Structures are given as C-alpha cells and as structure tokens.
Amino acid sequence: MAVFIYAVLINGYGFWIMGADKRRAEQHRWRISEKRIWLAAAMFGSLGVWLGMHAFRHKTKHRSFVYGVPLLFFAESALVLLYIINRK
Predict the structure, then answer these.
(1) pTM for this one?
(2) In the chain, where are the structural domains located?
(3) Which UniProt keywords apply (predicted)?
C-alpha cells in the first residue's frame, strides 16, 4: 500500500512541477531547474512528468525531455514488472 501511495505522490509532484515551471516561464519568473525535474522523474515520477509535458505543452522542444522521459518511464516500468514477477 505504501508503494502505491508513493507512486501517486511522486507522479503527482512530477505533473505539478511541469505545470508550475510552465506558469513561471510565462510570467518571466524564477524557474524550476531541469535537474529538479529530472530528479522527480528518476524517482519513479516519470509518468507524471511525461503527462505534465503534454498537458502543459512544456519542454516539448527539448530533445532530452522528448526522448529521455518516455525512455525513463519504460525503464522504470520494466523494473516494476521485474520486481512483481520475481516477488512471487
């Protein structure tokens, strides 16, 4: 149950961080660093970051995000599946 709650929270944070950075960019305010966005994605929040990219149309011209975030999501998904399969 704790893993499910963590997944919801980190992906919610990933989604939120993309929206917050987009708003800040539009208002010419201090931005959230790409390092922080990548950190959220790497902590199994890549789905939230990926959905946020598309929902807010943010970082969609950055190749590292366009290709890296989905790749990270699929790698994280494979790790989760391997964990579930080997857990039994």
Answers:
(1) 0.92
(2) 2-87
(3) Membrane, Transmembrane, Transmembrane helix
